[in-house]
Description:
Layout (H helix, E strand, L loop, with lengths): L1 E7 L2 E6 L9 E10 L2 H9 L11 E9 L11 E4 L9 H4 L23 E5 L3 E3 L6 H4 L2 H13 L7 E5 L3 H12 L4 E5 L3 H9 L4 E3 L6 H8 L7 E4 L4 H10 L5 E4 L12 H5 L3 E4 L7 H9 L9 E6 L4 H8 L8 E5 L2
Parallel strand pairs: 8-9, 8-11, 9-10, 11-12, 12-13, 14-15
Antiparallel strand pairs: 1-2, 3-4, 3-6, 3-15, 4-5, 5-7
Helix pairs in contact: 4-5, 4-10
Amino acid sequence: MKAAVFRGVRKIDITDVPKPEPDANEVLVKVKYCGICGSDVGSYKTGTYEEGLVIGHEFSGEIVKLGQGVAGWKLGDRIVGNGVRPCGRCYFCHHNRPSLCDNVQMCGVSFDGAFAEFVKVPSDILYRIPDSVSDEEATLVDPLSNCIHAVRHSALQLGDRVLIVGAGPIGLLMLQCVKLAGASAVYVSEVSDKRRGMAEKLGATASYDPSRENLYVKMDEVTAGRGPDVLFECAGTPHTLREAVTLVRKGGQVFVISICEEHVEADFMTPVLNELDIRGSYCGYEEYPQAIDMIAKKRVDVKSLISDVIPLDHLVEKGFEVLAKPRTEAVKIIAKIS
């Protein structure tokens, strides 16, 4: 079968690999679509995935074979697979923190993933796709679950003013989630004209280009000198991470949901003097059912975020290379596999 195999920094081969066979308690899935995650792009640029790995974890597909012992599933079921599989035995699993599991398994990260015609996955990470959700939309379940998880673990309160830094897929999903959670105003910082325009269509109170406008002055103006209550950092660059602590109000929260694989020199004086809360969030696990439900009920618009659908053969030049550009205008690129 055809699959995308990671070979190192900026090198992914679309090549033939053996078709997998499901072991006990696994299913074989015929992949329909798979989305390019920001963490995939980061690993593409830095080489952090293991060489020889079939990448891809934001996928939708159809069950075509059941392994021994699989119950509750049948051939033809439309599914998405959770990006996280905790062990259920470690300290963090026993303390209801599965996203911090010491022995976590992740499709397309720790075992072969779904930029492939077929993928085998444990049956206990599967969720049914409702009839009201398309296979394309289902690829956004994973990033949406991450955003729901972040909002739940943040300090956001009803009526708070929020600044979102970065309007990629995560930033645009965060925008919609914080509005649903009761934010009274949501400001967005983004250098891409297209992404800023999308943020405004999705309900941003205002959007700003930080390369042309002084974001500190703008926040001062719209918050009467106080600053936003919560800042969600969704860009993942050293510059935006350094700047975040200067933009949030005294006693506010900087919530980092992005992944920056570069070294960041940090200012620790401002967080101390302003008594800031700085917190991070890695991924959603328990939030998958809620993410599916929100898409099914159209409470969150994920379809508008899909800027391009490309064939697997063009995954690198029309997908990863496009998203790796510093000022890309693309938002969410997904690959049509079958």
